[in-house]
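Go through this pair.

…
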Amino acid sequence: VFIAQSRASGSHRDVEDEELTRIFVMIPKSYTEEDLREKFKMYGDIEYCSIIKNKTTGESKGLGYVRYLKPSQAARAIEECDRSYRAILAEPKNKSSDSFEHDYYGTNMRQEPRRNTLPFCVQPEFCTFEKNESRIQESVSKRLSVVSRFPFIQEQLFALFDLVPGLEYCDVQRDPYTNSGYAVIQYSTAASAIYAKYKLHGFEYPPGNRLTVIFLEDGSDSSE
């Protein structure tokens, strides 16, 4: 696990305290703080554990925090704990817990994609994007064209676009005259293609090289 410091963050110590040592997990509602500590103590030295409870009833919401002494311990816990805990790095404390819980539920309570997932997949902003008519006036389809100043490596480009669920195929071609990269990507649904374009158009891959992603006609009814 390789964790980068945000430019907007303060000193390294501040980042370590606020962002890199605290993880957020989904747990059975029967868990106590001692149960939580017992499950996660194998990954490192725990500073504290806390369980999020309903402010009115005092019942557990099935969510909790585990704070480690070192970022490496938090990273190890995220990598090695059972996937049912859906462990992620917790947001800094200056972000309200309610909004963080909402974002977390929105991302993690849906059916998991068949392979790897990016943190941005299936976020609420996607719904906003779909409803924004000014941004989907162009003809959409399940097929995308990807252009680059540099040639693509088939396996790498496939892995990049496969992070959005529903990838059916990735066909990489090369222009023998300009040595630029060109590929055709197709997803199983137009929704996946829209989201891939929304997130990967302008994405730097490799760093310094911005991808151009546009829709290609696939013969389907774009009004869907």
Q: What stands out?
A: The CA atoms of residues 192 and 220 lie 15 Å apart. The first strand starts at residue 22 and ends at 26.
